[in-house]
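Deliverable D4.2, example record:
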Amino acid sequence: MLLAVLPFAGTDVLLACFGWATESAVVVIWVIGLSALLGLITWRLQAATPAAAAAGAVITASLMFSTVEFPYEPWHTALIPMLAVSLLAFVATRAGRGKKERLGTAEARRGRAASQVVANLGVAALVASEPARIWLLDSRWLPRAAHAPRILFVLALAALAEAAADTVSSEIGQVLGGRPRMITTLRRVEPGRNGAVSVAGTLAGVVAAAIVAGAGSWALRGDWKLFELSCAGAVFGLFFDSLLGATLEEYGWLNNDAVNFLSTASASAFALGMMSVLPHSGIQ
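Output generated by the structure prediction step:
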């Protein structure tokens, strides 16, 4: 995943920097400055390792460049949903840390690794990139009447919202959910088990998805459809994540990073499918 996402996102950022430097240098200054600042704060708060913080900064810059619109305002880009994802993950992972440490499920104090960051955010960067824009808009998957930047951003936003939902659901479920049940058998299992779900954790995940979807919809000045599609994709991905955890991860065929990457991809795919089959699903 690191090799698939980071060189791709890094190249996308470099090309965008060269392109915007001649057209509007202020865009480059804001995007690089704010994404670097977010990465630095994440590292200083020990929410991520230095490598993970750098990976997050590159992905943030890529998403910000892909959502630039004029008149340019930095807060009307992907920066806002990225901030929402980061804040929700930070709060959720630290909630009830003592209990998680007793269960042996607490995140390492040094923060998330680069592979974890890419697993959660990589799909959003890929689907919002220039190659994805060219391929999707030339395909028959999308309604022709929809506004191009928002078409791509709904897929990225669904992936971001799913990443937040998965983290919050897992972390809060361990603290408030009691003994969860396996999504495949509904049998009670110990907290932290792959594929285990609880009512409290699931509700917390849905709320987190709605927060990120709402933040992204506001940031891009989107309509209700942008929120609906991205939130629905995120909720689908949340349950798909649990299903993968209870099957392929439980059998040892996938690790947690692969499950997270595929779950965010499923959120984008579900949103794309909804846009392609539902009438009046164009994004204004």
